[in-house]
Amino acid sequence: MAGMSGNTTLYSSAIQYVIFLVTTGIMLPRIDRIGRRLLLLSGSAICMALHFAIAGLMATDGHFVPDVNGNSNLRWEIHGASAKGVIACSYIFVGVYGLTWAPTGWIYSSEIFPLKYRAKGVGISAATNWIFNFALAYFVAPAFHNIEWKTYIIFGVFCTVMTVHVFFTYPETARRSLEEIDILFDTDVKPWRSAQVKDIFAEEIERHAKNSISGDKEVTATHKEEV
């Protein structure tokens, strides 16, 4: 679609895999310091912008063709500076995804489930990921064939929904114990304020201790009255 053919297509695919591998490796040791929410929010927001940018470039400067290099599923072609822009956006997308959602999504899904259900929860997460990857492989070709560049608008809308969903429902779990994370989901702390809450577990223990002491005092007072 961006005017590449033959070995150029193979080279471009190899480059994107190298970018993905390098960016994911760079981010893995830094996730705890940066935080889960920042990575997930920034990743989905940037990916959203990139999808809409690709759609805009292809809609503005692309044109309909019967097929691209013999592939009848691809019926939209773009050349020149706009084609380079599409390629650049695609590479940036791979890099951003490798820095954000690729490593963080797996870590986050392994943290948020209660211990009793963690193994099953992570298993369902992994299965869901691969099921949707499988479905996406079957969706993309017909989508490019029927709606051409508008496919990227669909991807952009999904990223928009993903950004909103993370902002309102994903609390910060970085540098917290699994016990703290369980308590975090039981509290009324808003996800967008969760990063500022410190020592949740210690505060919860102290609260339970105070409630226990108050309960003991009430029992003692009742006992004295009865005596």
UniProtKB/TrEMBL annotation:
PROSITE patterns membership: MFS (PS50850)
Residues that span the membrane, as ranges: 14-31, 38-58, 78-100, 121-140, 152-170
Recorded GO CC terms: membrane
Positions of the Major facilitator superfamily (MFS) profile domain: 1-174
A GO MF term: carbohydrate:proton symporter activity
Entry-linked InterPro entries: MFS_dom, MFS_sugar_transport-like, MFS_Sugar_Transporters, MFS_trans_sf, Sugar/inositol_transpt
Membrane topology reported for the UniProt record: Multi-pass membrane protein
Keyword terms, alphabetized: Membrane, Transmembrane, Transmembrane helix, Transport
Name of protein: General substrate transporter
Upper classification of the organism: Eukaryota, Fungi, Dikarya, Ascomycota, Pezizomycotina
